[in-house]
Amino acid sequence: MRISVFPKGELDALVAKSMSVLDWIHIASTLPIEGLELYSRFFDNESESFVEQVGDALAQTELSLPMMCCSPDFTHPDADERARAVDNQARIMRITRELGGPGASVRVLSGQRHPGVSDEQGLDWAAENIQSLLPLARELGIVLAIENHYKDGFWEYPEFVQKPDLFVELLSRIDDRVNFGVQFDPSNAITAGVDSADFLETVVDRTVTMQASDRSLAPGATLESLRLSDGTIGYSPDLKHGVIGEGLNDYDRIFRILVNAGYDGWISVEDGVNGMDEMRASVEFLRRARDKYFQGSMDIRVENQERARLAEKGA
Hints:
Layout: E1 2-7, H1 11-16, H2 21-28, E2 35-39, H3 48-61, E3 64-69, H4 79-100, E4 105-108, H5 119-140, E5 143-147, H6 164-172, E6 180-184, H7 186-191, H8 196-203, E7 207-212, E8 215-217, H9 223-226, E9 239-241, H10 251-260, E10 266-271, H11 276-314
Parallel strand pairs: 1-2, 1-10, 2-3, 3-4, 4-5, 5-6, 6-7, 7-10
Antiparallel strand pairs: 8-9
Helix pairs in contact: 2-3, 4-5, 5-6, 8-10, 10-11
């Protein structure tokens, strides 16, 4: 398991370009991490030279770019808008391959829950558009990872497949297990109104990346008091960001599920809303968790790889 960070707390400033992506990379490099997750909107209206500058900054700081966050709207009722979403996703996939190399992942979403779009129609559009991008993913040697999401901050409506049953249904429509998988976000499972570890058990066999954050209830609030009429919770102000491991997510159980499934991918810290001190504390929590839960599984994988190498040599 390797650790990355996502600039959740600086997202608006980075998109507005009042803060430089290059400056953020150097700030993040002071953390004890191996990689960075960036956001597709950082590359809006930017030239190829900017992509090269980002690549140079990653190289200088010795950080990988294993994950790119992108928010395509594949459920828009306008076919032209859906086509533009596909074209932009393809553009970001190529940038991700250039910066992250083979094996890097790009997040996909289904799209927004636009009024008037039925469940069946939205699922059809989302599956069709994701599948249309898989040949490019194979060509580039990268992975598309669909996140159990709530709502991109620049969207008007929540995620179309926010509810777990719809998410699992969309997942079942896409058979590819090499260039497509799940980006698991435990806090987003809570906003969908379900237990995060329970949800992970339903998708862990297809989980290829993970975002990590944690949420705590404001004094006097309960999950039931925040539950909306559709059973979800959403981004209530009474559901507050905080240091990973100090909130509602049962990370001990989450890590055990991941290890038992043989997960060895990246975990990206989606934190920093309350400052870099909390992000650093979250990174340190994941480092301790790696030593506690993942080191043994890493040793087993290395041992198995060595046995396979010797067996091949002997053959």
